[in-house]
Amino acid sequence: MSEITLVLLGAGASSRFTLPVKKQWLWIGDEPLWLYVLHRFTSFAQFNNIILTAHPQEKPLFEKYSNALVIPGGNTRQESIRNALEHVRSEYVLISDIARVCVQKEVIERILEQKGKADCIAPYVPAVDTVMYKNETIDRSEVKLIQTPQLSRTKILQEALLQEREFTDESSAIKALGKDVVYVLGSEKQRKLTYKEDLHYLDCLQPPANTQRVGMGFDVHAFCEGRPLMLCGVEVPHHLGLAGHSDADVAIHAIIDALMGAAGFGDIGELFPDSNMEYKDIDSKVLLQKTATLLRQCGFTIVQIDLTIMAQAPKLLDFKPAMQQTIASLLELPPHNLNIKATTTEKLGFVGRKEGIAAQAIATLKYFDWRKI
Ligand SMILES: Nc1ccn([C@@H]2O[C@H](COP(=O)(O)OP(=O)(O)OP(=O)(O)O)[C@@H](O)[C@H]2O)c(=O)n1
Ligand SMILES: C[C@](O)(CO)[C@H](O)COP(=O)(O)O
């Protein structure tokens, strides 16, 4: 099987799915859908090389969950395939939509049995409804509804994708080149997840696990002159501010790190590198908003956050309600699910010497329950 590379396409915008969560990031048990599909394929057959296409912003997130080669997708499905093919060295490539979640073992076997007999092997299901084409009824017995995975000769597919036209799948591109395509019976169970209503037809899906994902964040910033002291998005009157690439809101940074930790997505520095001038002096509420949006798109719901700010001065008690309201409303959290503590360190350590402020946060996430849509 080593002459076959598996390419799974997961870089789509999921726009027709019309939910805040992207379809490739629905959680199946404790796995995102794209990883569930990958494991489904590898449970059915051996592939020496596996390539995933992901939205460029999600490439590092895919890489946190899989050792497969993750390639940034393009603006179209075909562009994503072109990007992936640059990394394919095998004679054949098996390409499938991650959106065709319930890929069937027997379909894969039927495809592989035909390997070598044509330039592309594609599964199809027959049309069972009356078919109109350009307002004329056509003979439905001649209609094939094409599915994936599709097995192509790599070099033929690369040549086919050089054609000027944009194709919606490999078999049509290869057929347009005048090459051979063999069609094998697919399965209704391989329905493509396009609209949220399609979920009701995908009987291979297990519900999201009721796992509580927990993350911890910690950050420190030194005091400096000439900057406002921002904590939880609130300016606290003080003769010193905090130094940093952004507005140095150490409390929000700890919350972001806790959220990223709970999601298994790494840390704030990976998401918002301080080498990026886009984030110079940025309002950290913007960074927190971006983080919350990313977590929502990736199928997470924020459950609760507990924050501790360690500062010898200034006193923060009077500012805690505004801090809680600011962050809770930004995260669309009930305020009582965001607890903010402030403490001194009894004049011990760098905090006690008023050299800077530290913050620690614990965040809990759960998976968006797609069964309720
Ligand atoms: N630029 C793209 C577009 C699509 N895909 C993948 O190709 C498969 C089929 O595409 P589709 O079902 O249309 O997914 P989306 O493009 O995300 O859907 P939509 O058109 O609703 O945005 C999906 O697994 C999708 O992730 C991709 O890798 N790169
Ligand atoms: C490749 C495909 O699944 C074959 O039916 C289909 O063309 C993908 O279409 P999409 O609009 O990119 O989902």
Automatic annotation (TrEMBL):
Region (2-C-methyl-D-erythritol 4-phosphate cytidylyltransferase): 1-213
Entry keywords, A to Z: Isoprene biosynthesis, Lyase, Metal-binding, Multifunctional enzyme, Nucleotidyltransferase, Transferase
UniProt EC number: 2.7.7.60, 4.6.1.12
Positions of the record's site feature: Positions MEP for the nucleophilic attack: R140, K192
Feature type site, description Transition state stabilizer: R16, K23, H245, T344
InterPro entries attached to this UniProt entry: IspD, IspD/F, IspD/TarI, MECDP_synthase, MECDP_synthase_CS, MECDP_synthase_sf, Nucleotide-diphossugar_trans
Pathway the protein acts in: Isoprenoid biosynthesis; isopentenyl diphosphate biosynthesis via DXP pathway; isopentenyl diphosphate from 1-deoxy-D-xylulose 5-phosphate: step 2/6; Isoprenoid biosynthesis; isopentenyl diphosphate biosynthesis via DXP pathway; isopentenyl diphosphate from 1-deoxy-D-xylulose 5-phosphate: step 4/6
Family: In the C-terminal section; belongs to the IspF family.
Function (record text): Bifunctional enzyme that catalyzes the formation of 4-diphosphocytidyl-2-C-methyl-D-erythritol from CTP and 2-C-methyl-D-erythritol 4-phosphate (MEP) (IspD), and catalyzes the conversion of 4-diphosphocytidyl-2-C-methyl-D-erythritol 2-phosphate (CDP-ME2P) to 2-C-methyl-D-erythritol 2,4-cyclodiphosphate (ME-CPP) with a corresponding release of cytidine 5-monophosphate (CMP) (IspF).
Record's protein name: Bifunctional enzyme IspD/IspF
